Amino acid sequence: MPKRTLLKDWVSRVVGAVNTSFADTDRSSYGELHPDVVAWPGSVEEISSVLQTAHDANAEVAVAGSGSRTRERWPKRNNGKRADDQRPRIVLDTSRLTNILEVDETSQLVECQTGLELRHLEEALRRHGLTLGPFPDSIFTSTLGGVLGDPPPLAYSSLRGPLHGSCLGVTTVTPLGNVIATRVAPRRAVGPDISRLYIGSGATLGVLVSAVIRVYSLPETNMARAFLFPSAASALECAREMLAHDMRPARLRVMANEHSAGEVVMKQFPAQAALTLVFEGCAELVELDARRAEEIAAEHSGSELPQQLADHWAERYPDPNPEHLCHAWAPVRHSTAVAAGKAAADVLGNTVHGISYDQFSPHGCHMWLSVPEEVDKERLAEACTSAGLSPRGRRHTHARQHPLTQRLRQQLDPTRMMLSPEWD
User: Which long-range contacts (CB under 8 A, 24 or more apart) does 185-192 make?
Assistant: First the structure.
């Protein structure tokens, strides 16, 4: 195994000395990862060469983007207690991979490098009259590579589905340095879509360098609506029926207790549960959807709130939950959503800040539980267990933990060279 200083020299020859660092100030920027070398590659060829160098040097490699979600979740060295701890570590920082390679306005496709933050991509798309879709504001601080490689639960809308579902093709570099570019074509014409192997793999199967993403025309208009319901069950059933009637709002949320529903009505009405939604698209279809939503809500004993309150909610609450609250979440089926909320409320009692349901699909939704930070952690864990939720910072079974992914990793990365954030 070469010395760490020699490894730095090898990496600097590939990406350039100015794009390589051995300084403590740069190495400390990656939290618990504690790398030996930091490299900022600018092309697929440089990434390929760095991975080949790392393989020959028996080094570990981690891919880092904006670091907004993974900074404190890298595998620790544990003070040399593991054999792996003696291996040098290299960080491939994607900060230089920020180019938009092509915008096809006719086909509504964009190809860009994966180090680009989504907010910059969205700004560029809007200049062409295009958009990624109506996703929560908080995901736009992530890079495209972060959302594709490790999809966050928030990267979803009832109208467009998961953001990573809009990816039609990728260019990736395997741990051995081979470059793979998938074609943007119907799957039946080219065989299996192997790009799906790399989406959600957490960079364990390779480094995503660029991707082709489906984008959409900017909506002509949007319209918010808000309704009060006598119970969470009636609100959730109303939401389920809206989706069953092929309605696809840009945003759809159910607040299932008095505290969270009170945020919608601004304390002007007594509220047991509330349903809020936003429609967007051409004016005629938006009007039709809003009218149909009013009819379905009335069938489930829902009463419509003033337009001012609906608009206030849409502007003030762009995300499912405020960041300052300790929350847990889990995907739930429509048939078990009410029971999960009740189980959590039974354990936490009056300490529950909010129970809400967001990211609806025809088959289910995500349930979010919000409590103040001072709530006893054991009680929160008990409530999560009762409701089948995951505490904040944890995930359910990750794509990279799937047995098929593990077998692929044994073939593509037998030395476990690629590192990935540890969520569980």
Answer: none
